[in-house]
Amino acid sequence: MGFLDKLKSSLTKTKKNIVERVESILLGRSIDESVIDDIEEVLITSDVGTEATNEIITLLREKIKVGEIKNSEDVRSYLKTEMALLLGKPQPLIPFGEKPFVILAVGVNGVGKTTTIGKLASRFISEGNSVILAAADTFRAAAIEQLEIWAKRSGADIIKHQSGSDPAAVAFDAVEAAKARGVDIVIIDTAGRLHTKSQLMDELKKINRVIKKSIPDAPQEILLIVDATTGQNALRQAQIFNEAIGITGIALTKLDGTAKGGIIFAIKKELGIPVRLIGVGEGVDDLKDFDPEDFVAALFDYNQ
């Protein structure tokens, strides 16, 4: 199965939640105010978000008013074009600058953070890069063990301390080791749940500061991993993490199991943070660069 087919299959539930509901509204109706209201309700209730929905609907009304949109087919075409424009150009995760390129991976527990890190490591190594994984989620012994499994599977090195040790010390040691060994990429796993939210954010800020003591320009990427199945909750997580440490990119996991893939529009519109990666399955190759045009094409595809 090619990636576009895999993406279409993954977006089946989201497509039903957005596109097929819009289709049923347009069926046999002329384009009037009640149709616009119904489309607006679909977008709002399918996690597209209020800001993105307002932009789409305001422009739709204007185009109907001046006669650019006259029928159902025009509405379909408009929605497809506008939703792709809203998501912007692809902004993949590409290492840059002096080595090592440091990725600080953050997110709450249960979103697939360690798995995403493992898949990223496999990808970078398959592209000829050397990788060190840093087990800085020291609060869960299981997280360290899981990262070790991914290190062995991908061929990455791993830097770890004992469970319960200082996460910032692990991150610092990993970056120093990468410098000493001439390693290309460091990916740092972090805790997702401490006793309080402020404690978690303070811990991440400390890790960030300590990395900069070794490499002032690092981490070059602060990658937030969010679970698409959580919908608006994913947007809230992105807001909180962004306020605390400044997110540079998002990996959206578990798109294959949710009807809430519309959250991708809300994240882009309300936060302006690029979605760099999407997870569309369990396989090591199922973490892909996010391409807005492919995403919208898969969403509006009718030959399934």
UniProtKB/TrEMBL annotation:
<dbReference type="InterPro" id="IPR004390">
    <property type="entry name" value="SR_rcpt_FtsY"/>
</dbReference>
<keyword id="KW-1003">Cell membrane</keyword>
<dbReference type="GO" id="GO:0006614">
    <property type="term" value="P:SRP-dependent cotranslational protein targeting to membrane"/>
</dbReference>
<dbReference type="InterPro" id="IPR003593">
    <property type="entry name" value="AAA+_ATPase"/>
</dbReference>
<dbReference type="GO" id="GO:0003924">
    <property type="term" value="F:GTPase activity"/>
</dbReference>
<feature type="binding site">
    <location>
        <begin position="107"/>
        <end position="114"/>
    </location>
    <ligand>
        <name>GTP</name>
    </ligand>
</feature>
<dbReference type="InterPro" id="IPR013822">
    <property type="entry name" value="Signal_recog_particl_SRP54_hlx"/>
</dbReference>
<comment type="function">
    <text>Involved in targeting and insertion of nascent membrane proteins into the cytoplasmic membrane. Acts as a receptor for the complex formed by the signal recognition particle (SRP) and the ribosome-nascent chain (RNC). Interaction with SRP-RNC leads to the transfer of the RNC complex to the Sec translocase for insertion into the membrane, the hydrolysis of GTP by both Ffh and FtsY, and the dissociation of the SRP-FtsY complex into the individual components.</text>
</comment>
<feature type="binding site">
    <location>
        <begin position="253"/>
        <end position="256"/>
    </location>
    <ligand>
        <name>GTP</name>
    </ligand>
</feature>
<feature type="binding site">
    <location>
        <begin position="189"/>
        <end position="193"/>
    </location>
    <ligand>
        <name>GTP</name>
    </ligand>
</feature>
<dbReference type="Pfam" id="PF02881">
    <property type="entry name" value="SRP54_N"/>
</dbReference>
<protein>
    <recommendedName>
        <fullName>Signal recognition particle receptor FtsY</fullName>
        <ecNumber>3.6.5.4</ecNumber>
    </recommendedName>
</protein>
<dbReference type="GO" id="GO:0005047">
    <property type="term" value="F:signal recognition particle binding"/>
</dbReference>
<feature type="domain" description="SRP54-type proteins GTP-binding">
    <location>
        <begin position="274"/>
        <end position="287"/>
    </location>
</feature>
<dbReference type="InterPro" id="IPR027417">
    <property type="entry name" value="P-loop_NTPase"/>
</dbReference>
<dbReference type="InterPro" id="IPR036225">
    <property type="entry name" value="SRP/SRP_N"/>
</dbReference>
<comment type="similarity">
    <text>Belongs to the GTP-binding SRP family. FtsY subfamily.</text>
</comment>
<keyword id="KW-0675">Receptor</keyword>
<keyword id="KW-0472">Membrane</keyword>
<keyword id="KW-0378">Hydrolase</keyword>
<comment type="subunit">
    <text>Part of the signal recognition particle protein translocation system, which is composed of SRP and FtsY.</text>
</comment>
<dbReference type="InterPro" id="IPR000897">
    <property type="entry name" value="SRP54_GTPase_dom"/>
</dbReference>
<dbReference type="InterPro" id="IPR042101">
    <property type="entry name" value="SRP54_N_sf"/>
</dbReference>
<keyword id="KW-0547">Nucleotide-binding</keyword>
<dbReference type="GO" id="GO:0005525">
    <property type="term" value="F:GTP binding"/>
</dbReference>
<keyword id="KW-0963">Cytoplasm</keyword>
<dbReference type="Pfam" id="PF00448">
    <property type="entry name" value="SRP54"/>
</dbReference>
<dbReference type="GO" id="GO:0005886">
    <property type="term" value="C:plasma membrane"/>
</dbReference>
<dbReference type="GO" id="GO:0005737">
    <property type="term" value="C:cytoplasm"/>
</dbReference>
<keyword id="KW-0342">GTP-binding</keyword>
